[in-house]
Amino acid sequence: MIIVMERGATKEQIQHVFDRIRELGYDVHPIYGVERTVIGAIGDERGKSRLQVLESVPGVEKVVPILKPFKLVGRELRQQRSVVQIRHIGVGSDQLAIMAGPCSVENREQILTTAKIVKEAGAQFLRGGAFKPRTSPYDFQGLEIEGLKLLAEAREQTGLLVVTEVMNPRDILSVAKYADLIQIGARNMQNFSLLKEVGQANKPILLKRGIMAKVQELLMAAEYLAAQGHHNVILCERGIRTFEDATRNTLDLSAVPLLRELTHLPVIVDPSHGCGIRSLVPPLAKAAVAAGADGLLIEVHPNPEEALSDGQQSLFPDQFSALMKDVRKYAELEGRYI
Amino acid sequence: MIIVMERGATKEQIQHVFDRIRELGYDVHPIYGVERTVIGAIGDERGKSRLQVLESVPGVEKVVPILKPFKLVGRELRQQRSVVQIRHIGVGSDQLAIMAGPCSVENREQILTTAKIVKEAGAQFLRGGAFKPRTSPYDFQGLEIEGLKLLAEAREQTGLLVVTEVMNPRDILSVAKYADLIQIGARNMQNFSLLKEVGQANKPILLKRGIMAKVQELLMAAEYLAAQGHHNVILCERGIRTFEDATRNTLDLSAVPLLRELTHLPVIVDPSHGCGIRSLVPPLAKAAVAAGADGLLIEVHPNPEEALSDGQQSLFPDQFSALMKDVRKYAELEGRYI
Amino acid sequence: MIIVMERGATKEQIQHVFDRIRELGYDVHPIYGVERTVIGAIGDERGKSRLQVLESVPGVEKVVPILKPFKLVGRELRQQRSVVQIRHIGVGSDQLAIMAGPCSVENREQILTTAKIVKEAGAQFLRGGAFKPRTSPYDFQGLEIEGLKLLAEAREQTGLLVVTEVMNPRDILSVAKYADLIQIGARNMQNFSLLKEVGQANKPILLKRGIMAKVQELLMAAEYLAAQGHHNVILCERGIRTFEDATRNTLDLSAVPLLRELTHLPVIVDPSHGCGIRSLVPPLAKAAVAAGADGLLIEVHPNPEEALSDGQQSLFPDQFSALMKDVRKYAELEGRYI
Amino acid sequence: MIIVMERGATKEQIQHVFDRIRELGYDVHPIYGVERTVIGAIGDERGKSRLQVLESVPGVEKVVPILKPFKLVGRELRQQRSVVQIRHIGVGSDQLAIMAGPCSVENREQILTTAKIVKEAGAQFLRGGAFKPRTSPYDFQGLEIEGLKLLAEAREQTGLLVVTEVMNPRDILSVAKYADLIQIGARNMQNFSLLKEVGQANKPILLKRGIMAKVQELLMAAEYLAAQGHHNVILCERGIRTFEDATRNTLDLSAVPLLRELTHLPVIVDPSHGCGIRSLVPPLAKAAVAAGADGLLIEVHPNPEEALSDGQQSLFPDQFSALMKDVRKYAELEGRYI
Fold it and tell me: Choosing a second label site near D153 at 20 to 30 A (CA), which of A79, A84, A135, D95?
């Protein structure tokens, strides 16, 4: 941690900062510059947000952290990239993980039909929401347990792995019973109660970036899981909120190579929520693979026009099959396969 | 709902949209313009997000909602402003609600000292976190139940009302046992599981705007509560996330008069989180009152330099007392008092 | 244009709006809904921002434009994609346009060396700033005319086409004398004085998206050029400003397929400014091609460590050559070549 | 400047950074921490953006500037607040500067009528655009020189001072001939060509914050003027672009007290552009005064419903008069007057 003193800071103020730094258990290393004094506080600053409070001390201009606030999920501790093994599929391996399906599980026919379609096109995972976070209380809220059972039935029939979201800590064990991969949705990325309890499920977790979350905050949310010994975590870029309103969100593909530098965890991309417009999903899916994504999460619906949610961003079955053909070629250029 | 057809939409496509609109239970009212056809779908569109799915239909360019998506919290249904009565204090009345206290309850002495200070300066509510949402798992996470008990003790001693946050649906009843006003924090504004269960507590709710939430989304979150019959809701503007990083968030004071136009619910302002810098809190608190806020939520700490969280934005006791003197004058200009 | 009346609008207010719409030269087409009246104003609304002023009229809740505000650059008027011909290179054709070079022209050796490097790797254009927009007045401001001459010398030696920025209307003719393609930088996208005069140069224009510009505003800036009869315009996505500060900007690759739907003009991508971090440039350049970009604008410097500007985002010569090899393969998948 | 080395940086890499720092003219002061080495570069780093380029050097993780990049406009050099004297009015003094008038000068009657109205209500400045930056080429572009003459005539008749915008460097002298205070609009805040030439006019300048400009960038734009010896600069907060679309922009009132800490220059607020909604202007104008603004810039139109631009955010004459009465009281609380 670097503490920058104000231009006119007095000797007494500087001494007081020395004392406070030492009280907090750090070594003091001052640099006396031309215009101002800068003080290095030497020691492991993580988990010591109290150093930040030195900004409250008279004469201090700002406190600049030096170390990255995450540790277990960072590449400094673990250079090698992690593979999250979910039954027979290794996410983060050379095989691209393809997760596809409808926004919501709507009924038996819809989910079974979709499962067959996406399986045939090459997906290894079936996505589908049973518990749905909806902006309006008047919108369809999901089939809940009934939806989970339908997902399990689809797995039975197709061999696809099931990924689905949990929103309430009370539902973690129910969801874990049916899911192969548990999704923490964008709105819950900083739902720390959920993050603290989800590890009980003992299942791999798909952690989606919040629309308001910096890459560093996504990593801190993953660090919550890792700090409890839960390391089977897949990160997902799915668009952030910006001033641009022509698309539902702004898909931040730079986060993909950036995350690959910062963390050993696998990173997948959800272009469907990323842009919210069906016709933009295929080019962005290909771009995600080119940018180095370890997988894709794509909304597909047998009849988007009748979907109970997100119809406007769901691919038609044909579009998805065509896209998978293209994606295979892009994957190959990256030394990967589906 | 207005459905705008593409420039080259065919007769068949237009007819298909007519059919779909009628299937969904609306009347059709087309306008044939010079360049394109626009179709009015007449009926109550709220809760009918399925109309939005018409954007999936070939030939449709966009779907424009006409009605506001919230209803119970809106001023169209209820012109008169609501007063949320919490024991002897009516939030939304001519009396400004002043809620003050530390970010976190740290220990008995800290919270009792703070309570006396803010009570004397004019606050009617004591704020203090027992369950803390922290970005890092290594940061202080709050005293939990122990913290709630200390808050209750402070109420006993001072007569202040207690406002504190709940994060986990499992804790709602515990928090309700000690709190007079239950806070849903910014990170949980769209934690729909929490919104659906918090009504059980049968206590007034302070709903903070998420850092990435539009005003309309804040109202939709309040609508979740109202749709369950829970009308004792106070809204709180506390800063949104923008590109500006000189302040912790960007306090959106325009939300105050805007919310007063859109909803009958009371609106308070939290300038401490809004800017994150102690010296900016007093001018912004005064500005909030001038903009029409029904109250203020302010962080005060007996010794900010030693605070376990948010020290840099907490007022010193003297600053808070001085601010309250100023605020009284501003309140008077608005025909209000503390 | 659709005018939505307030719920309680009176007959007189509605009649007044009818009158105003007719005064402005439009036909009136009302829809009387259950809760409120909606009025269609039929006619070409573009250039009639005065209709927007109806929001000032008592009883009016909002005014919703139906037509896109741009016309000449839109695909509705011209379905076929445009190719901007710059000497022997057609930007927007199957050939990807590769523009590369340093941020600033620094000296003769630097620019000539870079030109040879990028030429050999496959670029057809040499980029380099002679007039530099710099945030600080204390930073290097460019070599100005001297820099233009060096660019021209590099063209002479290599056959590369020259693309360089103009900032001041007074410099348009000088820049046009040396450049093959004139760049309007991100900060000047809405410098309407420059947009109105740059057409005099009678040279193709590269229009970069402002960091604060919506896609629609980028198209309106291009419409300024088109409205003066200047149609040789290439658009460039180069990152927008968001809350994410781990990258210099957030590269909005969804803008590429979106622009391809909305406009017939070619669209290229500048990943260097888009992310501001050298190591992220190659994956984002490949992603841009996969997303459908018509070309790339990339910063390359013979010795980034010594660059007078943007060194941290400039590729080393070797990196650029390696990237071009990769890009060729991605281009092929899109049916294109370099 | 602090250079943070990567965790695994080698001795040679560290030595190379030492060498580079010394080459650039700084003293080296290393701190050897537990996990990594941090190097202080001692000297005046402003204008030395080349230090930033050290981020390009192998082994360097990041470069952290210590000094604020602005100097002449900062309070470190000049503690006392500046008063910009414009004829008989001192902006930044205890007298609040009130600038009011229409968005655009539309015709003689409109501007003369408005001038009388705002004069009577207490304004000292008449605002009105003669050169208009408009998003669409099809919108009204202003009366240009004719508009300037009408503004001068209004000054003649009322004694109001004239503030109007210049967009093109070519028009600086013309505008200076008629204006008492020259406005650089938000879109031109980083139009460095304009900033470099506007000083020629030898007139005070009103510099509006760009919608995507950080406070620090606003100060750097002012520094451009100061670096040329032009110190009569007034800053204006007028709303920034965020994800919130219920208002035209998000008025950032925290910028007011923040700027008062960082710079000695006066700071005024434009609530009209800040929110874009007439009914929100009065509460935000009062809030701006409470937050410490040195003045207000407000759009007033004799008949907003017929305005050629910005009608929806212009106050009716009666509203403006009522607002001024309120503002006087708020000013008094701040020890100021109109």
Answer: D95
